[in-house]
Structure formats: structure tokens, C-alpha cells
Design goal:
The chain has one helix spanning 44-55, and strands at 4-5, 18-22, 26-31, 40-43. The protein has 66 residues and is of the alpha+beta class. Strands 1-2-3-4 form a 4-stranded antiparallel β-sheet. A hairpin with an 8-residue loop joins strand 3 and strand 4 (40-43).
């Protein structure tokens, strides 16, 4: 699998993020701090819908209050 770290990771707490890896019909998700632990997979359309939903909310932007 080819893992990719979130573009939101960086300095400071940059190691506290998730990584994703595309599969044929699903997206694999894992904790970047514990890559050897369990991996969650979700259907690619569901993952795309989640990302679209997060982009619609201001709290998903870097530096926005949580």
C-alpha cells in the first residue's frame, strides 16, 4: 500500500494525524503515530462524501477553532 499523510500535518503536532492509502474500491485509513496497528477501510464513495462534508465546514480549515 502507498500511504499518504494529511496535508494538514506539519510543525508542532504534525505527527498526530491520519494517513490514507487508496485501494481498488476502498480507502484505507490508519493512525500515523501507530502505523502497525489496525487499519480502517471504507468504500471510496463514502470517503469522498466525508471529505466533501468536511470541506464545507469552517472548522475543517487549518488554524480554525476546534
Amino acid at each position: 500500500m502507498r500511504w499518504r499523510k494529511s496535508t494538514y500535518s506539519g510543525g508542532g503536532d504534525g505527527d498526530t494525524c491520519v494517513e490514507i492509502a487508496p485501494l481498488a474500491t476502498r480507502i484505507a485509513i490508519r493512525d500515523s503515530k501507530a502505523p502497525a496497528r489496525a487499519v480502517l477501510t471504507v468504500p471510496a464513495p463514502a470517503f469522498a462524501a466525508l471529505i466533501d462534508h468536511l470541506k464545507e465546514h469552517p472548522w475543517s480549515e487549518p488554524g480554525a477553532p476546534g
